Amino acid sequence: MGQNLILNMNDKGFTVVAYNRTTSKVDSFLANEAKGTKVQGAHSIQELCAKLKTPRKIVLLVKAGPAVDSFIDQLIPYLEAGDIIIDGGNSHYPDSIRRTAELESKGFLFVGSGVSGGEEGARYGPSLMPGGSPAAWPHIKPIFQAAAAQVEGEPCCDWVGETGAGHYVKMVHNGIEYGDMQLIAEAYDILKRGLGLPESEIADIFLTWNKGVLDSFLIDITANILKFNDDDGQPMVTKILDAAGQKGTGKWTAIAALDAGMPVTLIGEAVFARCLSSIKAERVRASKVISGPQKEEFKGDKKQFIDDLEQALYASKIISYAQGFMLMRETAKEQKWNLNYAGIARMWRGGCIIKSVFLGDITSAYTKTSDLESLLFDDFFNKAVHKAQPGWRRIIAQAVLWGIPTPAFSTALAFFDGYRSEVVPANILQAQRDYFGAHTFRVVPGKENAKLKAGEDIHINWTGRGGNVSASTYSA
């Protein structure tokens, strides 16, 4: 990605200096991919800094964690006040909050920027999500917005917010990516194991979906994957071991959601689905001793079923994005970030892994109502989910009857039903907590009496054998 981003910026008229601690890679790059360009090379950090104009703008594309801090420490002796260090890796946002404070205290500026789009995006236009020291933005804006993907004449890059906001938004982007990928995998499983369709036919279904509301990068590449055959004519995807890897950003998103107390259930289930896939040997043993329902041939309307599945995927995707934006909203309050949600959706419309037509609708929703509480309150998405509901429910019901797991589809519908419920059974939970631990509860307004007062934390001696002293109330 580093090499491709350098070539991208060179194409846009900027002079870039390349450095790698393995200096032979620099020489090879200049002699091959960068031959005939204005790209310059450096064989030491000192030479790199000496060749850059002030304020220096140095982009690090290294492994997240200690490697970033190590390079920053090596750079500092050769920098001047006002110079800008940009971390373009997938760093955890608390590290970016810390690095912003540390570097600003020394007179430097720091930017933690999400970079999405993989190698191809880096070369021809990624989605860039910079945040950190606001004073750095005017200096890097022309470079970043020129190098970024362009959609309808607008760059897929804008200033996200202070301190760790850039890497936070990239983290949520990656979490949503986990959810999108899991939903697509479940749709494939339903078509494969449920309807018994071959990969070539499933690919054609995905291509059809890609012309409608599900038009997206991930649907497109999944169709291409399903059409790709090995030398023996068998679909390559059927030869890939069903044990998924992960690098942590989805897990970080799920942990951030738990810390914020936000029900980002779909991303959480997508992470757990990868965890379940990874215990392959145990699943093989379980398949020998645990039986499920007998698979029956589908006798219904196949076209209607496929249309239902398209709507189920669309509705579940809406829920995933609604949850992701709810999480960003909550964390923005805690961190005092002024996030531009329409701008974030706009940045994701091109260059990145979750790019889709769908994001244009999210941009419109937040442009119309900048403080929108939930995507489900927007007329467009509200109508879309209600239209999808019947097919969404039929798909999940049929998958349950078949014994095909749909953790992402199912949790999306469960969230939807919970979110639209004025009353949920948490009263039972609070009664249980007070019964065994004197954790107290609050009374429903309008149901107060001499013992039950509104707005107070109340403990009841449920058995006559307990005490009247309650535990302190707090949220962990």
Task: Summarize it.
The chain has helices spanning 2-11, 23-31, 45-51, 66-75, 93-105, 118-124, 137-147, 165-194, 199-209, 217-227, 249-260, 265-278, 280-289, 302-335, 341-347, 358-368, 379-402, 407-419, 426-437, and strands at residues 17-19, 40-42, 57-60, 84-87, 109-116, 127-132, 150-151, 154-155, 161-162. The protein has 476 residues and is of the alpha/beta class.
Written description of the protein model:
By secondary structure, the protein is of the alpha/beta class. 54% of the residues lie in helices and 7% in strands. It is built from 19 helices and nine strands. The chain has helices spanning 2-11, 23-31, 45-51, 66-75, 93-105, 118-124, 137-147, 165-194, 199-209, 217-227, 249-260, 265-278, 280-289, 302-335, 341-347, 358-368, 379-402, 407-419, 426-437, and strands at 17-19, 40-42, 57-60, 84-87, 109-116, 127-132, 150-151, 154-155, 161-162. The strands form three sheets. The chain has a five-stranded mixed β-sheet, with helices on both faces. The chain has a two-stranded parallel sheet with strand order 1-2. Strand 7 (150-151) and strand 8 form a beta hairpin. Helix 1 runs parallel beside helix 6, helix 5 (93-105) packs antiparallel against helix 8 (165-194) and helix 11 packs across helix 12. The two termini are 40 Å apart.
